[in-house]
Amino acid sequence: MSEQLVMRTVAESQSERSEIIFPADANGLGNLFGGRLMQYIDLVGAMAASRHARATTVTASMDHLDFVAPVHVGDLLILKASVNRAFRTSMEVGVKAMVEDVREQRLKHVSSAYLTYVAVDPTGHGLVVPQLVCETDHQRRRYEDAGRRREMRAGETLRKKRLREELPPEWHL
Ligand SMILES: CC(C)(COP(=O)(O)OP(=O)(O)OC[C@H]1O[C@@H](n2cnc3c(N)ncnc32)[C@H](O)[C@@H]1OP(=O)(O)O)[C@@H](O)C(=O)NCCC(=O)NCCS
Questions:
Q1: What backbone torsions phi and psi does residue 124 show, to the nearest 5 degrees?
Q2: What's the N-to-C CA distance of the chain in angstroms?
Q3: Which of 132, 146, 154, 156 can bridge 92 by disulfide, Cβ–Cβ 3.0-4.6 Å?
Q4: The whole model's pTM is what?
């Protein structure tokens, strides 16, 4: 297949997942454990990336994640994921987590993150993903922002590589 000939719209892969929070997922304060929320974010992000690529994807990175407000036992958690930009074999996906107040019919933002997924074949080799077609101004803005974040990530990856090289040899696996 020629590289990047296939194109897919943002809407084609937009994904949603909802969860009712049970006590088994809570910390001592009765709030959703942060690690579980990260798992939900990763899962819904992978759904969007795999739908866009129509292939298995692996998580390459999760950017800075803020826990804006706690999620309580019994809350209805809604997670929405959207591919912001497709590169060659990787895609940036934005995920927003919200709690739905079912009585007031209102959504409260509790967390959001940007994740990068890489499409892989069954042997783990990278697959070229379809280009992303933006249909709205909002999608175009997210597309541009994702390009800027990719540049920042590249600088960060280089910085981490240098840091690893500076570790004492006995720490190298
Ligand atoms: C992610 C992974 C496939 C990248 O493999 P790699 O050999 O480093 O691949 P490359 O350097 O050729 O990069 C492939 C793509 O991944 C992107 N990438 C690699 N590391 C990245 C990172 N840390 N953050 C964001 N993107 C990254 C590259 O930019 C490139 O994108 P492009 O093809 O769209 O330009 C590999 O590191 C891997 O398998 N990691 C483990 C994934 C996993 O197990 N995830 C679950 C974690 S629990």
A1: 90, 5
A2: 38
A3: 146
A4: 0.92
- With 60 as the cut, is the pLDDT of residue 4 above it? no
**What amino acid occupies position 21?**
I
Report whether 28 contacts 152 (CB < 8 A).
Answer: no
> 24 C-alpha to center of ligand 1: Å?
33
64-56-48-153 Cα dihedral, nearest 10 degrees? 30
In angstroms, the Cα distances linking 164 to 68, 152, 157, 161 are 31, 19, 11, 5
In the numeric block, which tokens belong to residue 137? 């101004």
Query: For ligand 1, atom 6, which residue shows the shortest CA distance?
Result: 126
Alpha helices in the chain (DSSP H): 34-53, 137-166
Q: What's the 35 CA to ligand 1 centre distance in angstroms? A: 22
The pocket around ligand 1, CB under 6 angstroms, is made up of: 58-61, 87-90, 116, 118, 126, 153, 157
Q: Which CATH class is domain 7-171?
A: alpha beta
Is the C-alpha dihedral spanning 10, 114, 25, 29 positive or negative?
negative
In the chain, what's the furthest Cα-to-Cα distance?
58
Query: In this predicted structure, what is the pLDDT of residue 128?
Result: 97
Tokens of 4: 């990047």
